[in-house]
Design brief:
The complex is a heterodimer of chains A (475) and B (402). Chain A has 475 residues and is α/β, with parallel strands linked by helices. In chain A, helix 11 links the parallel strand 10 and strand 11. In chain A, helix 1 packs across helix 5, helix 6 crosses helix 12 and helix 6 crosses helix 14. In chain B, strand 7, helix 5 and strand 8 form a beta-alpha-beta unit. Chain B is built from twelve helices and twelve strands. Chain B has a six-stranded parallel beta sheet with strand order 6-4-1-7-8-9, sandwiched between helices. The chains are: A alpha/beta (475), B alpha/beta (402). Chains A and B meet through helix 9, helix 11 and strand 11 of A and helix 3, helix 7, helix 8, helix 10 and helix 12 of B.
Chain lengths: 475, 402
């Protein structure tokens, strides 16, 4: 089995990352009753004998001694990381796998990317190499960050190039939180566009998330719980909304609950690689099946269950509801309209007691309402993992490569253009060594090229699906 | 005579387990509906084919398990050991840490050469355990990366190293509405390679077996276990011992010795310019059929229907194309059971569908970069397409020749 390393960058990245580690521990604790360090746990955790000083403490088999997350925590401010290290998860993180600074990036991509990038390049490389050395067979780096700020956006994307050069064979999966239109960081369009160029060029796969969608989901859950609707009591141990170890208090801002959703996304994404099932799906299969052209690697994700939290024995009707929900906008982690755009590919990752006939029945049922591109009319990738998530009997993660991301990117470009036309705040960027106006221009062209690729595919939407003439054989 | 089974990938290993389980259960079934002596002979023959015996009486499957990631093999080994009756040899497994990612090119061009020596050594060890080797049974799917790509590579190697032994590939035709998005590419590449190196392809379609589970067996929630068990049952009823035609009291020696070699019409005949549109092709127009009967009244069964010339191409006499194997020993507690193995047109339509879809995708160049990354170029795709279109044409024109 393979291992993955999580690199969490910036405030957002570290907060989400923290939720992820908390949920991962709880999931493995629920599955692994014997306390034996097995291959499933080793995908994200090392087993360490803490009595041994220095590096020699790794234990590869036997009883769990002390679990250490395969993580690198990076932030140019100390607040968030310090809070994590003083919180209940402090022992899960290796204190040597941190890179922090005090001054912060000032919501400036250029500071994160150029200044801190060059300042910390050596250290970053060293920590990454260390984490790779601890892996038997490293398959994937998961990078978690936001696009709108300075550190996550700038330094997070600087990392991508480093990873590509140093570990070319290892996948780079990026979970990116995109700023909403009402974002309170004025320069977020600049930061996002500059970061997009890096994602285009150096990421294998990107899962865009937007805060607004997460917020809407949490609001709906709160509404349903508070209205006391029948059958909507949230199970105490459910991983969807509760977490013991995250950073902020629940009642302050809903970020805690929002971060949990993203953490669940990552857990479900990797479940079929970690646990057994009748139809496994490894991480390299995600890229293989969902990325038909190298540039088009942005995947819309939707997760169920989010609202209705299931009973133990679900009659078939309820199971089908799970599939319908996955294709409803309410369950998407990014605001987009896939049903009215074109699907290039779609993956369904199911967990729990769901069998192949359930899958097929639902695909047949949902297919007519979805538009698939002409050369991939049956473009479904499916996986069945026997282990359900904690507190549920089954769950579904749908990943779609769909042209519906185009409006999101176009909107981002518009916000950028409005700001750039006025040259607002530009001097903060241009005063950084290595930054010129051409950097902005190149970033916008890169995005425009991407949008154009989606346009061309969309243009085929209205064309009839015809079979191409086949090779004719001379006999 | 013994058969060495090679199980590749998740599908191959999951099915392989069910097959050995079905074979073992049937051999040790007490209600054979025949004399004790016959039952013992049946058991002994079946055992020799598929199992070798360990010291404390536990049978060991004559199998090599190959997968590029460990979860499935671990599961398969433990499931077999749980039965307490038979198991797989611990050292007959070859496993890696990272799978093939549904990428035929990765299975064929990367894993293949990298692990060639280890895998072939394991197979060699199994072969050496056999008193006499009848051939290889390779179980693989077409849709994924390991079964398909590495399976094709291994079959080629078997062709080179054991050219005198029969290689039969059990291939799983994927569901029409995807399991894997690039399944059509992987299938086309697999079929074109197997065409050149395999002696026989035994095809099972997931859709067809699914229908059996749903319509004939009324299973409500069909799992891959159910599907694999139906398949294993079918294979068991084909490969368990039967009497040879000579009617002697020995069981047929070569279980894979189905006469797959069909001689096409002599080259002196004029070649057809255009396909005659009058003559209809049916899905079951055959060039060879094998019926296997087990249980009660096998000797009095009327097989006239199978000798109807309408079933066969016009240049074949039914007597050359039709074979029967029989045994009174019942299979799996069924009083009477019959199996049909057919070399007919049935595969043309599914093949056409897969090639068509793969071609449409290829024309847009979608996913091709994933294959070229590992050494399978556009030319290799074109070669595969050409070969399969040619094979289909051959089928059709052979059948229509008069």
């Amino acid at each position: 089995m393979t291992q993955s390393v999580v690199v969490q960058v910036g405030q957002c990245g570290n907060q989400i990352g923290c939720c992820f580690w908390d949920l991962a521990l709880r999931e493995h604790a629920a599955v692994n009753q014997q306390g034996v360090y097995d291959e499933a746990i080793s995908s994200f955790f090392r087993n360490v004998d803490t009595r041994v000083v220095g590096d020699g403490g790794s234990i590869s088999k036997g009883k769990i001694c002390s679990l250490k997350a395969r993580a690198v925590l990076i932030d140019m401010e100390e607040g968030v990381v310090n809070e994590i290290l003083q919180g209940p998860l402090r022992d899960v993180f290796d204190s040597k796998q941190l890179i922090t600074d005090i001054s912060g990036s000032g919501n400036n991509w250029a500071v994160g990317h150029k200044v801190f990038g060059s300042l910390y390049q050596e250290q970053i490389l060293e920590k990454l190499r260390k984490s790779a050395e601890h892996c038997d067979c490293l398959q994937c780096f998961f990078i978690i960050h936001s696009m709108g700020g300075g550190t996550g956006s700038g330094l997070g994307t600087f990392l991508l190039k480093v990873l590509e050069d140093e570990f070319p064979e290892v996948y780079r999966f990026v979970t990116s939180v995109y700023p909403s239109a009402e974002d309170d960081v004025i320069t977020s369009p600049y930061n996002s566009i500059l970061a997009m160029k890096e994602l285009n060029e150096h990421a294998d796969c990107v899962l865009p998330i937007d805060n607004q969608s997460l917020f809407d989901i949490i609001s709906k859950i709160d509404l349903m719980v508070n209205s006391g609707k029948l059958g909507t009591t949230i199970k105490a141990k459910s991983l969807v909304t509760s977490s013991a170890g995250a950073v902020k208090k629940r009642h302050q801002k809903p970020f805690d609950a929002m971060n949990n959703i993203v953490a669940n996304l990552l857990l479900n994404l990797t479940s079929s690689a970690r646990f057994e099932g009748s139809l496994n799906m490894d991480l390299n299969e995600i890229s293989m099946n969902l990325v038909p052209f190298p540039q088009l690697h942005y995947l819309v994700s939707s997760l169920t269950p989010l609202y209705t939290l299931a009973d133990v024995n679900i009659p078939t009707r309820r199971l089908d509801q799970m599939f319908s929900d996955a294709f409803s906008k309410d369950h998407q982690l990014i605001r987009a309209d896939p049903k009215h755009s074109l699907y290039l590919a779609c993956a369904l990752m199911v967990r729990g007691n769901v069998q192949v006939s359930d899958l097929r029945r639902n695909i047949e049922r949902l297919k007519p309402s979805l538009r698939f591109i002409s050369w991939n009319q049956e473009g479904w990738k499916t996986s069945l993992c026997s282990v359900p998530p904690v507190g549920h009997s089954h769950s579904l993660l749908a990943l779609a490569n769909n042209t519906c991301v185009k409006p999101t990117f176009m909107e981002l470009r518009d916000r950028f253009t409005r700001l750039y036309k006025k040259k607002a705040h530009l001097h903060h960027y241009l005063q950084i060594e290595g930054m010129e106006e051409s950097c902005f221009m190149e970033a916008v062209s890169s995005l425009s090229r991407l949008i154009e690729e989606y346009n061309q595919l969309d243009a085929t939407k209205c064309m009839p699906v015809e079979d191409l003439p086949r090779l004719s054989i001379a006999m | 005579m013994s058969v060495v089974t090679v199980q590749l990938g998740q599908c191959g290993n999951q099915i392989g387990f069910e097959v050995f389980d079905a074979l073992y259960s049937d051999s040790h079934c007490p209600q054979g509906l025949c004399s004790e002596r016959e039952n013992e002979a049946y058991q002994a023959s079946s055992k020799e084919r598929f199992f070798s015996e360990e010291e404390n009486g536990v049978s060991i499957a004559r199998a090599v398990l190959v997968d590029m990631e460990p979860k499935v093999i671990n599961q398969t080994l433990s499931k077999a050991a749980q039965s307490g009756q038979w198991k797989y040899a611990q050292h007959s497994c070859f496993c890696q840490k990272e799978g093939s990612g549904n990428n035929w090119a990765y299975g064929y061009s990367v894993h293949g050469p990298r692990h060639e020596e280890s895998i072939m050594n394991l197979i060699q060890k199994e072969v050496e355990k056999c008193d006499s080797l009848s051939g290889f049974f390779i179980i693989m799917s077409m849709a994924g990366g390991t079964g398909s790509g590495l399976g094709a590579f291994v079959t080629q190697n078997l062709q080179d190293q054991y050219s005198n032994s029969l290689k039969m590939n059990q291939i799983i035709w994927p569901y029409g509405t995807g399991e894997v998005i690039v399944q059509n590419y992987n299938s086309v590449l697999t079929l074109s390679h197997l065409y050149r190196s395999s002696d026989a392809l035994l095809v099972h379609e997931n859709d067809a077996i699914h229908k059996i589970c749903a319509k004939l067996m009324n299973i409500k929630q069909i799992s891959f276990s159910d599907i694999n068990q139906v398949l294993a049952h079918q294979l068991g009823s084909v490969f368990q011992p039967t009497y040879s035609v000579e009617g002697s009291c020995h069981y047929r020696r070569n279980p894979l010795g189905i006469n797959w070699q069909v001689r096409p019409p002599l080259p002196g005949l004029p070649t057809l310019g255009k396909v005659s549109l009058n003559r209809e092709l049916h899905f079951n127009t055959s060039i060879a059929n094998l019926v296997i009967l087990r249980g009660k009244d096998v000797h009095s069964a009327d097989l006239g229907g199978f000798k109807d010339p309408a079933l066969y191409t016009s240049w074949l006499e039914p007597i050359d194309a039709f074979n029967v194997w029989k045994t009174q020993r019942a299979f799996s507690k069924y009083e009477k059971s019959a199996a049909l193995v057919s070399n007919s047109q049935f595969l043309l339509k599914p093949l056409d569908t897969i090639v068509g879809k793969a071609w449409n995708m290829f024309a847009s160049k979608a996913y091709i970069h994933q294959y070229t990354k590992f050494g399978i170029e556009e030319e290799d795709f074109l070669d595969s397409f050409t070969l399969l279109e040619q094979a289909s044409e051959n089928w059709i024109s052979f059948s229509l020749r008069s």
